[in-house]
Amino acid sequence: MSLLLEQDHNDKRWHHPPQRRSSIAILDFGSQYSQLIARRIRETQVYSMILPYNTTAQRLLELEVSGIILSGGPNSVYDPDALLCDRQIWELDLPILGVCYGMQLMALQLGGAVSRAERAEYGKAQLIIDDPTDLLTNVEDGTTMWMSHGDSVTRLPEGFRILGHTQNTPCAAIADPV
Questions:
Q1: Over the stretch 6-34, which tens digit does the pLDDT of each residue have?
Q2: Alpha helix locations (H) across the chain?
Q3: Nearest to 93 by CA among 63, 61, 51
Q4: How many of the other CB atoms lie within 10 Å of CB of 158?
Q5: HSE of 97, CA atoms in CB hemisphere, 13 A
Q6: What is the DSSP string of 67-105?
């Protein structure tokens, strides 16, 4: 272990370097909210970094991140030129949160299905909590959320369950409890 020499009021003391803090990698798929997500994470005293959507799993291992957030974005995951993440991130044994496009990409790459929604959802929507555990533990049923998507998860990947829905979106919040 390395030691740092720190000067304090002309008094030399040896100190261990600070413990490595938790860090969250935000893979950016073009969301207008990536900076806001990063700032909110930092407000909880957790370091966050915004990285390109195609950052490799190997690079995330090198950065020793504690978790990953897949941001939203304006594209559709089923477009021929869709922005995709490295499929090996699913094997990193790290918590991964998908927001909008990120959730849809997660569902698609893990064996679920995504398709054009019957009605696009833009603006405020009430989230109805189906399962108040995990991610939605402290979210009140009927909380107003901001939605901005034209696609929807239509089939969950194996092992996933629905945590919440809106009037227009049957799978607004999903989780794999593993």
A1: 333 444 443 333 445 689 999 999 998 99
A2: 34-43, 57-62, 101-109
A3: 61
A4: 9
A5: 15
A6: EEEE---SS-TTSTT-----GGGGGS---EEE-THHHHH
Q: Which two tokens stand for residue 147?
A: 């939605």
Stretch 137-152: mean pLDDT? 88
Q: What gap in Å lies between CA 118 and CA 135, rounded to an integer?
A: 26
pTM: 0.84
Q: Is 155 helix (H, G, I), strand (E, B) or coil?
A: strand
Helix (H, G, I), strand (E, B) or coil at 48: strand
Residues 108-112: contacts with CB within 8 Å, 24+ apart?
108/77, 108/78, 109/84, 109/85, 110/157, 110/158, 110/160, 110/176, 111/157, 111/158, 112/153, 112/154, 112/155, 112/156, 112/157, 112/160
